[in-house]
Structures are given as C-alpha cells and as structure tokens.
Amino acid sequence: MTHATDDAPVTGLLLAAGGGRRLGGRPKALLTHRGRPLVEHAVAVLRAGGCERVHVVLGAAADDVRARADLAGCVLVENPAWEEGMGSSLRAGLGSLAGTGASAALVLLVDQPGIGAPAVARVRAAYRSAGSLAAAAYDGERGHPVLFGAEHWPGIVASAAGDRGARAYLKQHASELTLVECGDVADDYDIDTEADLKHLEGGA
After folding, report:
1. What distance in Å separates the CA atoms of residue 101 and residue 7, rounded to the nearest whole number?
2. Cα separation of 23 and 54, whole Å?
3. CA 74, CA 72: separation in Å to the nearest integer?
4. How is residue 191 annotated by DSSP?
5. pLDDT tens-digit series, residues 35-58
6. For the residues of 88-152, what is the DSSP string, one character each?
C-alpha cells in the first residue's frame, strides 16, 4: 500500500526569519518582489520546483508576515531565537519535519530571489533516499538550495550555529555531497544591503 507521504518525500523548507539588520531592520520576508512579499514568491518557487509541502520558518515581525503574506497551505514555524542567525532557523525548520513522513528537506533562503523553480527542480531531482545530500552549484561553487536527507538532520541540528547554518556539516561530509550545477538557470545573489534592493525592482 502506498502512503500519501511516499508521493512527496521532499519537503520544501524556506528560511524566512531574518530581520534585515543591514536593510534598516526591514524583515526580508516582507520586501516586495514582483508585486508581492518576498516570502510568497519563495514559497511559489518551491512549489513550482516540485515541493508539494512547504514549511516556512518565521522570526522577525512574524505576526506582520502572517498578516500580510498569503502563506495558505504552508506549515508556519516560529523561531523565537531568530536573532541568533540562520543556524537557529535551520534547527527549528528541521525540527518541524519530525514525524511528517518527509525523507528530505530542500532548503531555500528567502533573500535569494534569483533562484527560481528550475534550480529547485534540479536539486530536488538529486533526491534518492533519506541518505541523500545535494546542493546547487554556481560555476562549481556550492550554494543554495540544499537538499538534506533525513539521515543527516540530527548531525546538522547538532552543528548548526550562528549564521553558518549547515556549512560545517557540509564541509565534513563533502565526499557524500552531490553538486548540481545551476549557474545557467539561476543567480545566487543575496538581498543583504540597500544596494542589493536593485534586484527587486521591476520584473514580470
């Protein structure tokens, strides 16, 4: 008998808790991109890339994000320790997947709108089992999104700290990591500073 979870082993995990310190304290999730909050755009990217289920980690201005963004159908995870950095959001997000039947998490950052559905789909296609470990690469350099099979979650949770997220874990397990080149379909810039806001202007 086929369980429903067997059809959707890879859950999208969107890290959207950042407070935008270098953006004057504007939460990144609520920056406007193509006429809607950035967090909505990122959820749509994960879904279009093949992640039927999406968990969204909120932190800064979480109540405002809930009120202003349409996140219907998503599991919303609040990270009260969001100021500690991305590591705390990754821990909260992976923790929320326990018991859901997911075999892997595909992690996307809310402040990388240059990464669209084609890159998500490529990395998702690298999923083989709960032991899978894969990441998008840009000219051979590891970037996002990243796919973590469930067997790796305990090690990532144990090592994720500050803004480094899973970097240390991925370095330790480099021999197991599948790099999926995405430089031809995505740009992995971050929206970190006022100068980066130019990436959010216009667009269709």
Report:
1. 10
2. 26
3. 6
4. -
5. 999 999 999 999 999 999 999 999
6. HHHHHHHHHHTTS--SEEEEEETT-TT--HHHHHHHHTT--STT-EEEEEETTEEEEEEEEEGGG
